[in-house]
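Example 5.3 — RNA polymerase II subunit A C-terminal domain phosphatase SSU72
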Amino acid sequence: MKSVLVINLEVKDNHEEAAAGAKLTFDLRQEVRVLFKIYVCIFLKTAHA
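Solution (predicted C-alpha cells):
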C-alpha cells in the first residue's frame, strides 16, 4: 500500500488565473513528489469570477 496526498485548489474561472494556477499546481506537485516520494493527486475547482 502506498501513501497518497490529495490537494484541492480553487482558482478563479478566467484565463489568467487558470494559467497561473496550472503553473503553481504543477510546481507544487513536483516539489511534494520529490520531497516525500509519494503520489500526488491535485484537483482544481473553478470559481466564477
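Remark. The radius of gyration is 12 Å.
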